[in-house]
Amino acid sequence: xxxxxxxxxxxxxxxxxxxxxxxxxxxxxxxxxxxxxxxxxxxxxxxxxxxxxxxxxxxxxxxxxxxxxxxxxxxxxxxxxxxxxxxxxxxxxxxxxxxxxxxxxxxxxxxxxxxxxxxxxxxxxxxxxxxxxxxxxxxxxxxxxxxxxxxxxxxxxxxxxxxxxxxx
Length: 168
Fold this sequence. Notes:
Elements: H1 4-10, E1 11-14, E2 19-22, E3 37-41, E4 46-53, E5 56-59, H2 60-69, E6 76-79, E7 92-95, H3 97-101, E8 117-120, E9 125-132, E10 135-142, H4 145-158
């Protein structure tokens, strides 16, 4: 288990920028340098930092949470604005996986421009579904893309999706 007081000695968190800096050579990071390295998931257009400390690799946002609060997040850390490099505390929240999923970015392979809305070739219509927790909820088929997007947005409101869900 990591000692919180040692983490506070080894690193400095800049709350204005959301960046974590090594105070001394810690985790292989030179003193004064931002800790961690960039990780990229191209399929989801996500960039975030990870860092190695005492032989274990951590997502920087989880490590920063521990640095600030002295305890590990109980669930997932959601970057409210969708920017995985923005680790300012006002942009981080400890949420369930289901709530985190309600604030996802638009995936790069999406063709309709809106998550959960896709073209169903066999019927020649737009199909709409929404995933809440672990279950898909069927919304329906639509001739018009704008009608499909409107139905999806209404379902998102009903099920408590974050206003940023589906941003590109």
